[in-house]
Write a structure and sequence with these properties.
Elements lengths: L5 E4 L6 H6 L4 E10 L2 E9 L3 H9 L3 E9 L4 E5 L3 E5 L16 E4 H7 L5 H5 L57 E6 L8 H19 L3 E5 L9 E7 L2 H10 L3 E3 L22 H14 L14 E3 L13 H4 L2 H14 L11 H6 L5 E3 L17 H10 L10 H8 L1 H33 L7 H7 L8 E2 L10 E2 L4 H10 L2 H31 L13 H6 L3 E3 L6 E3 L3 H43 L2 H5 L1 H35 L4 H29 L32 H41 L9 H7 L9 H16 L7 H23 L13 H24 L2 H11 L8 H4 L1 E5 L18 E5 L16 H31 L5 H39 L3 E5 L4 H12 L8 E5 L5 E5 L1
Antiparallel strand pairs: 1-4, 2-3, 2-7, 4-5, 5-6, 8-10, 8-13, 9-10, 11-12, 14-15, 16-17, 18-19, 20-22, 21-22
Length: 1059
């Protein structure tokens, strides 16, 4: 028998159970060796009944076959009776004579049933593997699939009446073996009449699905008769193992290896010098860890693996217990989406990608299935990833547990996992400022009657300053008041305006810088752990960009024709959108101005129409009402502007999705910054600065000029700023939490209601792809609103924290709830988002850093201009005879002669008008010879001290935070050492691999010369041996005489000849 031929022989055994297993169609791959110089691969096909099997056992037959086709994915073998079988082989090539096993026969069916991994050496000798899951075998006859085993020029669909009953709980194709990796949805309800648009969409789907088959995907179509409404098609996609491996290698997706199974980020931490802690602290820390960790006896721990890329020819080196689950759900989704993005749907090579088809309505949806129900285990009783995430992460009762980031990454992908990693890290970092802020607040409560609160005691004491008469704060309706009526405001102000406030403002400046630097370190570890160092940065153009742009150019890099937006067009679009943004900012400022004027009017309403209690607390009720009105306006403008921002970005028409998100992020954050913070900025830095004196005629000239009459309480503006900040921050949190809980439920209820109304067979249970179709689609900007909400809250925590030290505590409580709400929404209420790989949190880190820098300046101005810290210090040092705060309140008030009131300004509520009244400000009295009611020298002293404090404060803080940024490295030292170690090992491995490869090549050449004058290696060009021979023919000319590097046979196979 010629050594270049393939042989087929029947298996001959008399075992009854063996014959039973051969009664069904299966393919047996065997290995034989006739001599030490040649090893042949033998393929046997059996379609025997038990009776025939017994006959074959008594008289074994041998049939000679020959290779008639050798495409990269399909192998065609012709048997003696002109019978042709087509099957798939993982590898193909010349076998070495190392450890030959004679007549060892391996059945694929037996391999599946055994559930064990078969190494390449056991199956075919070194460097070859056989499939260990059924996905790489030909499908059973009658299975309604589209795969590599059907003709490429047609899509087969079997009549639904002949199909087996669908298990509604299944996540697999009808054969129960191939997992559904992606679902495409489209409608066809033309009733026999097809419009031109529908015909074009149908042709696009046909071509697109043909190309998906060519890429190696396997498809199964659920006819519309099986859908809930009788018009929806569900096209299920499955990616075989070989295609997964090929794309994973290109996309740098890695598998855990067996050799380094214990290496993780925790391994190199043991190399550090650790100081021994007291036993008490050890027990306390261990107790804290146990509280924050889920029960590892019930639920799995984080696996500790070293990952590497599987090129497909070294599977035995990786931890692959089951090919179906070797790659994570997120990785499978990522690979399938990559194929969908590149697949063509038209003969024109410029038209490709699923996003275009979704944009023009050819397909309605594209989504990945959730893995089973969220509230119960799978069919076989095991805890699937979705159920595990619900148990240990999404349930509200798990609020104090740490997040399973490895499981989030495995199920949702790196982009979602990185968001929750950042949110969890931010939450942990908030513990420190929350505790310090609470201590500062408690200090204010505890020292209320101490020496630091002399001004508040003077205001509340009617025998000292409480009996001072204050001027009316509004015209006509307001009355003269005693300073003692501001006692409540003075005490409230001291809770947040005490000596600890300055310390807390400085502390928050350092905290914000430290938080950003520590996050960079944490992010570096995450990038290393999750293998995100080499994430591809190339992006395809947006489908909307390609379909709307009518101008084209030749790409200077790819030399291909591409849509192009000229610079002048971009400039015009940017100017138009910039004008709209400026207009909307003016709208926000107008709303703030309207709120200020309404606040002034509310004071008159409360004094004129309210009872004694309302008149007594009119200032507090006015501040709270104005803050609530401002919150409502903020939320309304936010909804309006988000829609407007989408329209503006669509008008700009950015080329890539990253450019789209960056433009959208900039516009939204700029608007939201003005929308949320403008009223706070006004109260902190501008309120009362335009006030001159009570009888100022210019302040009553117009409605707009009435803003000059808006003055702070004699106790200061900090209490009002605190009320405004608390209501906006807490109110926004409560509203957003309510929307996050209610919105997905309402959306899903409405879709389910419509689906039930359209359902023809109400008794049929929904399948998983139909259930997920009813869930809310998170969209590509699923995490945008989550990031935006946290960044705005970060601004509340850092920008005005000197006015409200409890802001970090409320933010911490919000974050604890936010993590579980977002987790619950993603696990239960929303579809599983398409996985994406990212290296960082994107543009949000730059925004965080910008807010941190602004926060330093903002806190400096809050302390200098909003609080009374500087005026009190100037009075104690310069003006107080006893160098304390006794008499400070009297020095901060100025005198006004009531006879200077016009008739339309005088109060109608009082029958007796005092000769003079007091108001807050540093101004001359009415009897000043040169400048009555002008600015006094004390004003300029305080003003100079304020400016000096701002300059010194921000320079010291910026200098110290800069030093901290420099001292704290972006990459932990231990991780940097580990990275250097990995680079060294990788370099050594390359050298070792190069030397070993050259030795192996020499061994192969020697084997071929010993086997005969010419050695043939037939392969499809994809196998590892085909690549080795190609490498040999290209790189070993100096050592061997290559007579013919390769020949192309008529059937498409490649034959290398080496002499």
């Amino acid at each position: 028998m010629d050594n270049s031929e393939l042989q087929v022989e029947d298996e001959t055994q008399n075992n009854h159970s063996r014959r039973q297993s051969l009664s069904t169609s299966n393919t047996i791959i065997t290995e034989s060796s006739s001599n030490e110089s040649q090893t042949n691969v033998i393929a046997t096909e059996r379609r025997n009944s038990p009776s025939k099997a017994s006959s074959t056992s008594s008289s074994p037959q041998k049939t000679t076959t020959s290779v008639i086709s050798n495409s990269p994915t399909m192998k065609s073998v012709k048997i003696g009776n002109n019978k042709e079988i087509i099957y798939e082989m993982n590898k193909n090539g010349i076998q070495s004579n190392e450890s030959p096993k004679v007549n060892k026969k391996l059945s694929r069916t037996n391999i599946y049933s055994s559930g064990t991994n078969l190494t390449a050496r056991d199956a075919f000798g070194p460097k070859l593997t056989v499939p260990t899951t059924p996905e790489d075998t030909p499908p059973l006859p009658g299975t309604p699939i589209f795969s590599n085993d059907v003709p490429r020029d047609s899509l087969l669909q079997k009549d639904s009446s002949s199909e087996t009953e669908i298990d509604p709980e299944t996540l697999y194709f009808r054969d129960g073996r191939r997992r559904i990796d992606m679902v495409l949805v489209y409608h066809e309800d033309n009733n026999g009449v097809m419009t031109e648009l529908e015909a074009r969409r149908k042709e696009q789907r046909r071509v697109f699905q043909q190309n998906l088959l060519k890429e190696g995907l396997q498809l199964e179509l659920e006819p519309k008769e099986n859908s809930f409404d009788g018009k929806t098609y569900f096209l299920k996609l499955h990616i075989p193992w070989k295609i997964k491996v090929q794309y994973a290698e290109v996309m740098n997706l890695k598998l855990p290896t067996k050799r380094f199974i214990t290496i993780s980020v925790k391994a190199w931490q043991s190399n550090e010098d650790v100081k021994e802690s007291p036993k008490f602290w050890e027990r306390w820390i261990q107790w804290i860890k146990e509280i924050h960790t889920w029960d590892t006896k019930k639920y799995p721990e984080e696996p500790s693996f070293y990952n590497s890329i599987d090129s497909g020819d070294r599977e035995e080196r990786f931890v692959v217990k089951d090919r179906d689950t070797a790659y994570t759900p997120a990785q499978r989704s990522l690979i399938v989406m990559q194929i969908l993005l590149r697949a063509r749907y038209d003969e024109n090579h410029e038209k490709a990608g699923i996003r275009r088809l979704l944009a023009d309505g050819t397909y309605l949806d594209c989504y990945s299935l959730h893995e089973g129900p969220y509230n119960k285990p799978g069919l076989s009783g095991e805890n699937l990833d979705r159920h595990l995430l619900y148990l240990i992460w999404a349930r509200p009762s798990q609020w104090y547990k740490r997040q399973p980031l490895w499981l989030i990454r495995r199920y949702f992908g790196e982009k979602v996992a990185l968001y929750f990693a950042w949110l969890g890290f931010y939450t942990k970092c908030l513990y420190a400022p929350a505790i310090v802020g609470l201590l500062c607040f408690m200090y204010g409560v505890g020292s209320m009657d101490g020496p630091d609160n002399v001004p508040s005691r003077e205001i509340c004491d009617y025998n000292i300053a409480g009996n001072i008469t204050l001027c009316p704060i509004c015209d006509k309706a307001c009355t003269y008041q005693r300073l003692g009526e501001s006692c409540l405001f003075s005490k409230l102000t001291y809770l947040f305006d005490n000596p600890a406030t300055v310390f807390f403002a400085i502390f928050m400046s350092f905290w914000a810088t430290t938080f950003l630097e520590l996050w960079k370190r944490r992010q570096a570890v995450i990038i290393w752990e999750w293998d995100l160092q080499n994430v591809e940065s190339e992006e395809e153009p947006r489908p909307e960009f390609e379909t709307t742009v009518k101008t084209f150019r030749i790409n200077p890099v790819t030399r291909e024709r591409e849509p192009y937006l000229p610079v002048w067009s971009k400039a015009l679009r940017s100017c138009a959108t910039g004008s709209i943004v400026f207009f909307m900012i003016c709208v926000v400022l107008g709303a703030v101005l309207g709120t200020i004027i309404s606040r002034i009017s509310l004071v008159s309403v409360f004094y004129e129409g309210g009872g004694p209690f309302l008149q007594k607390h009119a200032k507090i009720f006015t501040s709270m009402t104005a803050a609530l009105i401002n919150l409502v306006i903020i939320m309304i403008l936010t909804r309006v502007y988000h829609r407007l921002a989408r329209w503006m970005v669509n008008m700009e028409n950015p080329r890539t999705q990253t450019e789209y998100e960056s433009s959208f992020t900039f516009k939204i954050f700029l608007f939201e910054f003005v929308n949320f913070y403008s009223s706070l900025i006004y109260i902190a830095f501008f309120k009362g600065r335009f006030y001159v004196h009570p009888g100022d005629a210019d302040a009553r000239a117009t409605e707009f000029s009435r803003i000059k009459t808006d003055v702070c309480d004699p106790a200061g503006c900090l209490s009002e700023l605190c009320i405004q900040l608390a209501i906006i921050m807490v109110g926004k949190q409560c509203f957003n939490n309510f929307v996050e809980i209610l919105s997905p439920k309402m959306w899903n209820w409405w879709r389910k209601r419509n689906h039930i109304a359209a359902t023809k067979d109400h008794g049929r249970p929904y399948t998983y792809w139909e259930k997920d179709y009813q869930l809310q689609d998170p969209g590509r900007l699923a995490l945008f609103d989550e990031y935006l909400e946290m960044i705005l809250q970060y601004g509340f925590v850092t920008l005005f924290v000197a006015a409200f030290p409890l802001a970090p505590l409320f933010a911490l409580l919000k974050h604890i709830a936010e993590i579980r709400l977002d987790a619950y929404k993603m696990v239960k209420e929303a579809r599983r988002p398409l996985a994406e790989r990212v290296q960082d949190i994107g543009a949000w880190y730059g925004i965080l850093r910008g807010v941190t820098y602004v926060a330093v300046v903002s806190n400096a101005f809050v302390i200098a201009y909003t609080s009374d810290f500087i005026p009190r210090s100037v009075y104690a040092i310069v003006y107080s005879p006893t160098e304390d705060l006794v008499g400070y309140i009297d020095s901060s008030l100025s005198e006004f002669n009531t006879s200077d009131y016009r008739d339309d300004m005088k109060s109608d509520m009082d029958t007796h008008h005092p000769e003079t009244c007091q108001y807050r400000g540093y101004r001359n009295g009415p009897d000043h010879a040169n400048d009555p009611y002008g600015l006094s020298p004390q004003y300029w002293h305080v003003f100079a001290a304020r400016l000096a404090f701002v300059v010194v404060f921000e320079h010291i803080v910026f200098a110290l935070t800069g030093i901290m940024s420099y001292v704290i490295p972006a990459v932990p030292r231990s991780l940097a050492t580990q990275l250097q170690r990995e680079r060294l090992l990788a370099q050594e491995a390359k050298y070792e691999k190069g030397i070993k490869s050259r030795e192996d090549d020499d061994d192969i050449l020697s084997m071929l010369r010993e086997a005969g004058s010419i050695g043939r290696a037939a392969g499809g060009g994809r196998g590892s041996w085909a690549r080795r021979f190609s490498k040999l023919s290209d790189g070993l000319d100096a050592h061997v005489d290559v007579a013919s590097r390769y020949n192309r046979n008529s059937d498409g196979s490649t034959v290398w000849e080496v002499t």
